[in-house]
Amino acid sequence: MNGKILISFGIAHALLGISPFAFGKQFAGFADKFFFKISEGLFEFPLLNGQMNFENFSAFWFVYYGLLLIPLGILVNYIEKISGQIPKRFVLIYLIIVLIGVFMIPFSGMTFLMLPHAIYMLFQKNKLEGRN
């Protein structure tokens, strides 16, 4: 179930990212370039006297993060099916990563969706360990 939740978060994140309500304008520009060279890379880096395009940067990472959640969810789903539970180390690392995201961007999906999911996973793990 937790893997399917992560997969759905990833799909929703990616679809929201390319929608007109989020970064649709940027992705239309990316499509015009056939998604090749959507930024100047290191030449945009301020240390090299570059000027970063923050909208393109945000658009890319917003969608890319969603796409990364999908294979992570597939892996978690597989592990849950094989062993019946997720390793506690994974749950704790997931919770820490989510907490960092909540701290940095409090009014976001990290706070309202992923934090409750991470806490649920921790409670679920502790409940399973209590049975053994």
Major beta sheet, specifics? none
Uncertain stretches of 5 or more adjacent residues: none
User: Total number of helical segments?
Assistant: 5
What is the share of helical residues? Answer: over 70%
Report on the architecture of this protein.
- The protein is mainly alpha-helical.
- The chain has 5 helices and no strands.
- The protein is elongated, with a radius of gyration of 18 Å.
- It starts with a helix and ends with a helix.
Provide the fold topology.
Layout: H1 2-18, H2 24-32, H3 54-83, H4 88-104, H5 109-131
Helix pairs in contact: 1-3, 4-5
Give a quick set of tags describing it:
single chain, elongated, about 130 residues, mainly alpha
Question: What is this entry, summarized?
Answer:
The chain has 132 residues and is mainly α.
